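Feature request, filed as a ticket because there's no other form

It would be nice if the structure record came with a short human-readable summary line next to the tokens. Right now we just get the raw output. Example of a typical job, pasted below so the devs can see what we mean:
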Amino acid sequence: QVQLVESGGGLVQAGGSLKLSCAASGGTISNTAMGWLREAPGKGRDVVAAINWSGSFSKYADSVNGRLTISRDNNKNEIYLQMNNLKRKDTADYYCATAPVLSMSDAIYETWGKGTRVTVSS
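Raw output as currently delivered:
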């Protein structure tokens, strides 16, 4: 069973940047699609970015398009989320998760990490 651990969250001012990492252990994620999902206070969980197994294709939620970039390093068994020009509305717990195919639907995601918190201050 693959285990996922997110890191890189923290407190940042609006307009700043953060890079989240997700490290997998107990198995490989090199042959599976991956996604970053977030859950803001009082809201449901949304997929913000997803990437296919090879890293050749990715998709983003409209709310983050152009500001967030998902990437992966299959040799390291890791994925990343570069977050630029952060806004207060980006404040949330961020999770990485595996999926059988690239999808912007949270229902398809299978194995989840425990999350890392991103707080954006004004």
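Something like this underneath would help us a lot:
The CA atoms of residues 51 and 57 lie 6 Å apart.
Strands lie at 3-7, 10-13, 18-25, 33-39, 45-51, 58-60, 68-73, 78-83, 92-99, 116-121.
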